[in-house]
Amino acid sequence: DAGVTQSPTHLIKTRGQHVTLRCSPISGHKSVSWYQQVLGQGPQFIFQYYEKEERGRGNFPDRFSARQFPNYSSELNVNALLLGDSALYLCASKPGQIQETQYFGPGTRLLVL
Amino acid sequence: GNSVTQMEGPVTLSEEAFLTINCTYTATGYPSLFWYVQYPGEGLQLLLKATKADDKGSNKGFEATYRKETTSFHLEKGSVQVSDSAVYFCALSGGSPSGSRLTFGEGTQLTVNP
Question: What's the average model confidence in pLDDT over A66-84?
């Protein structure tokens, strides 16, 4: 079975631009979460979506937004990019909403110049 | 809120040495505890987990026991290999008020030399 997939794998943007990152969960998984991992640090929670509704939001500015589609795939959008947004963006999926193991994709590495 | 503290790295060992990476946590309620591993240039892979006190998670020779009295979940392996070189993250989910989001430690870089 395919794992969590993310696209693109790498991305280079300039300050002020907008970016969209995509995630496809494991088949049968209805919950998707997004994490930001800055180089040398642990991942930080951004959003959780379950059944197309936002179920949790981390301490990130409103420039960050996300959505989940009927097929349970998800997009993370970041507006007005800053240099500090350079990071590995990880998507994770799990079957339901409550405490369960999350399975991570390979990530999208974003560089903002 | 929830937090996870890992021993500072990096850790460098010789092949077949014993490994311990310390992890302690702060959480309200009864969180689940995890160890994830990240190989260079890759995402996170689940290594092992424990969902209640005194549970022992194990996988690929690695073990960790959920100790509620000391709020700890230390990772151990009896004999490390070069292929174990990676960054190891301790994490928790559950408890209040963070729900099912994962809270990670800062990570511990392990290098195993032949």
Answer: 97
